[in-house]
Amino acid sequence: MLPYKSLIQIDRKSPVTLYIQVCNVFIALITKGMLQPSDLLPSSRVLATLIGINRNTVKLAYEELISQGWAESLGRKGVFVISKLPALSKTKPSETSKPKSDNSGEAFRWTNKFKNATPSENLQKTTLAIDDGFPDVRLAPIDQLMREYRSLSRKFYGRNFLKYGSAKGSEHLRISIGNYLSTSRGLGVAAENMVITKGSQMGIYLAAQLLLDLSDTVAVGVSNYGFADDTFRHAGANLLRIPVDGKGMDVDYLEEALRHKKIKAVYIVPHHHFPTTVTMSMERRLKLLNLAKEYHFAIIEDDYDFDFHYENKPYLPLASIDHHQSVIYIGSISKTFAPALRIGFMTGPPAFVEAAASLRQLIDKQGDTPLEEAFAVLFNNGEMDRHFRKSLKIYKQRRNIFCQILKSDFNEVIEFKTPEGGLAVWANFDKKIDLLKMSENASRKGLYIANGSFYKNESFVTNALRMGFASLEENKMVEALGILKKVVR
Amino acid sequence: MLPYKSLIQIDRKSPVTLYIQVCNVFIALITKGMLQPSDLLPSSRVLATLIGINRNTVKLAYEELISQGWAESLGRKGVFVISKLPALSKTKPSETSKPKSDNSGEAFRWTNKFKNATPSENLQKTTLAIDDGFPDVRLAPIDQLMREYRSLSRKFYGRNFLKYGSAKGSEHLRISIGNYLSTSRGLGVAAENMVITKGSQMGIYLAAQLLLDLSDTVAVGVSNYGFADDTFRHAGANLLRIPVDGKGMDVDYLEEALRHKKIKAVYIVPHHHFPTTVTMSMERRLKLLNLAKEYHFAIIEDDYDFDFHYENKPYLPLASIDHHQSVIYIGSISKTFAPALRIGFMTGPPAFVEAAASLRQLIDKQGDTPLEEAFAVLFNNGEMDRHFRKSLKIYKQRRNIFCQILKSDFNEVIEFKTPEGGLAVWANFDKKIDLLKMSENASRKGLYIANGSFYKNESFVTNALRMGFASLEENKMVEALGILKKVVR
């Protein structure tokens, strides 16, 4: 007899009735092959004693097994696993098997239509990190957000926000963000022309899926945000790499390419280019807009970094100049607040925004309305403004200190320009430093720092890293760079 | 001179400095064509008085305009819009233009790779609705959830959940849901073999994108969940419709089709079929599993409705019998809790789950960790169990009352079977009733009810509706059906 006492674990607090729990264990034993066709099940009296439940519960379980076709009662002989059980393959549960890099040997086939980028860093368990340029989550007015969130759920009308809503997201939040875009960057956008996304990544994804068909061409920087590259590849597109210099993407090079090739979309992070933190010049912005009109391509303007500009002269987004003709404008609240609260937005030509909302329904129906409503309150009561102002001030101080230390302590190994904005320094390491080893050695000393592979691609080889300063308080910054100094020596 | 006083609205609470606000308004006027090349700007003294700001602020704004290349100073003559402004097309901002059904006339082209399903109903503003079968959001322990959510954000370690985390979702929640799946349905799944999704819709989307390439075939019911159909079409697949009867999908028909055609995946809602609420028989479940092994296709098992089964005999999911070989198992917490809080899960072969997590990174990086962590607490402290038990009891009562009223008051116009589970009745209306008109007339009397178009497709013509009973308290149910009775008379 099988060791039923240990095999059948009863959970009396479960909403599943006891007899169904017992029944389910038997089905599992049968389908795993531990009980074979025609095997005798223990008598209800024996099993009841073994696992400490009422005998009638066991009888109910057996009746259920019989009615579902897993067992048969042969009168006085007892209850048996059904003799003509359909052949089910008997393998171990998958927990014990390892994932493979391809899926040969699996029961069915699937495709990765994209090359895997380095998986995102899970920073929830690190205590000291020089990251890619992430915000300091301790600065976010999270408690105010949660207070609003909770307060909404207690109000009668707030309960309605728990029902299905619009795929475009909370109307209140779209209005609030619209107002913010208007004052901060002269971008006039009506609520119905905006879709709330889960961070800027979902904006890139929606744009890619709508704009790009199989074998279409999208122009991107020679150096570029790796997850954008992957998102375009996943949509089936080919990447055309355009050089990027100190003034952003080289639009003359792009113009030359346009003469020979149909390009469906151009992806830019004008403010500030990822990973090199360069700001695109106004001259190039205007030329790019004119090229878009001449050659009928879409500009995907990923402006997640707009809010962090320290020299007090952020250029207007291309979208503000374009008035929703050629530009799809993508922004992020996650990046200014907390990465694990996924809120962003996308605006563009009205019909495009409608199509994006339809597609978004297929992806995840809609966003979390109560969270969106809570953010709307924070925009409306000035909390977000205070947060932007406060964090901008703190990040500027941190940038200055960080760059000072880099200059004084890493002068021989790191070459960089102080970034005008954003949350990271683009640090070119001396050739003699092996970034892979540096990252490993730092990790052993308790410091997370990337190994640089995320910033490379098939046409961009570099020995550089983004070094995020924004999430580091001054003492942590000193500690982190102190460890790094020992590692690179 | 332009009416600057009304055109230039200053927001003194904005984090954007005043002079940048003024500068941005001028750029907008220039790019919209309201200010033309070589137009004279008002003197700083005049403008300062007009809009009530310091003259030096205006001067700073003009300097900024000049440095960005929008304006030029001609000594004592004043500041002018630059004469050699690149030609920018001058159209009205898009707020005033209407979205079109196609995008002819737009500056660039995009594609809807899918036919639009009826947009989801926005139920956040309705007060009385017979819906598609949605939960009663007032039953959800939302306040407990929010309390945990807020409490997490106040704890030191809770703050870490605001940083970037795993694309698979909160590990705590994966463990909690794993435990729940094990006791409720004998499905053994390790945390690393599960990805937390934004509701079951995202599970369907991820599975579709990974399994289906252009022109692949996916088998679905003749009647089927419209958003699943659209999601498969969006992935480029062709639908093969398989008949569905009182025992679920006709697997003999499917077997015949498999002899002639390569089928990559089969989508089923075994428990209970959408829209007809039928439960798939155990015999067919086992046969389908065997066919999957023989013909190497994937089964997408959408089991969002498992938790609502009133006859106390829910069949085991196919996934529980299959042990992660051929079945991708999709479930929802949103459907049992609150639709606007998007939480669901997907399990499957380990390598498939890894691929799904990689793809998920491209879509929206990850879920909202704090919300996921709060749900994990509710699973662990028994709150979710209590909720499941309580709502099951209430929904069963509501189903019984609803069906009683349908029998007594709608006997001549509606034919239906009392559903064994789920949150809706599949109501076949008499041919003489025009559902479009019925829906419109009900709407005029303050009752939302669907017009039936969502349940039809190119091969399924019906005069039936899903009538959700779960979200209606008894007095509302009487009110709603009272209105409907008047409408169909």
Report on this structure:
- 2 copies of one chain form a homodimer.
- The first copy, chain A, is α/β, with parallel strands linked by helices and 489 residues long.
- Chain A has 3 domains: 4-81, Orthogonal Bundle (Arc Repressor Mutant, subunit A); 129-134 and 386-488, Aspartate Aminotransferase, domain 1, CATH 3.90.1150.10; 156-381, 3-Layer(aba) Sandwich (Aspartate Aminotransferase, domain 2), CATH 3.40.640.10.
- Chain A has 17 helices and 16 strands.
- In chain A, strands 4-12-11-10-9-5-6 form a 7-stranded mixed β-sheet, with helices on both faces.
- In chain A, helix 2 packs across helix 4 (55-67).
- At the A-B interface, helix 2, helix 5, helix 7, helix 8 and helix 9 of A face helix 2, helix 5, helix 7, helix 8 and helix 9 of B.
Detail the topology: elements first, then pairings.
The structure is a homodimer of 489-residue chains.
Chain A lengths: L3 H4 L10 H14 L12 H8 L3 H13 L3 E3 L5 E3 L47 E2 L11 H13 L1 H4 L11 H15 L8 E4 L1 H13 L5 E5 L4 H9 L3 E5 L1 E2 L2 E2 L1 H10 L4 E4 L13 H14 L2 E5 L15 H5 L4 E6 L11 E4 L2 H15 L4 H12 L2 H27 L4 E2 L8 E6 L5 H10 L3 E2 L14 E5 L5 H15 L1
Parallel strand pairs in A: 3-15, 5-6, 5-9, 9-10, 10-11
Antiparallel strand pairs in A: 1-2, 4-12, 7-8, 11-12, 13-14, 14-16
